[in-house]
Amino acid sequence: MVYHNWKVYRWAYNQLHSQRVVVSSEKFTTVTAKKLTTLRQLLFVL
Fold it and tell me: Where are the domains positioned within the chain?
């Protein structure tokens, strides 16, 4: 087991467990922003 990855995993698990709504909202925002960036890149090329 690698120490640093384990520590990150524990932090992410604790955040998801204690702040489920906030984590879901942030995940949605991140995915949406990535899709918009990809769409802008496609439109710029066309």
Answer: 3-45
The tens digit of pLDDT for each residue in 19-32 reads 877 777 777 777 77
Radius of gyration of the chain (CA): 16
Q: How buried is 23 (Cβ within 10 angstroms: 0-12 exposed, 13-18 middle, 19+ buried)?
A: middle
If DSSP codes are grouped into helix, strand and coil, which group holds residue 44? helix
DSSP 15: H
Q: Are 16 and 23 in contact (CB under 8 A)?
A: yes
Which pTM value belongs to this model? Answer: 0.37
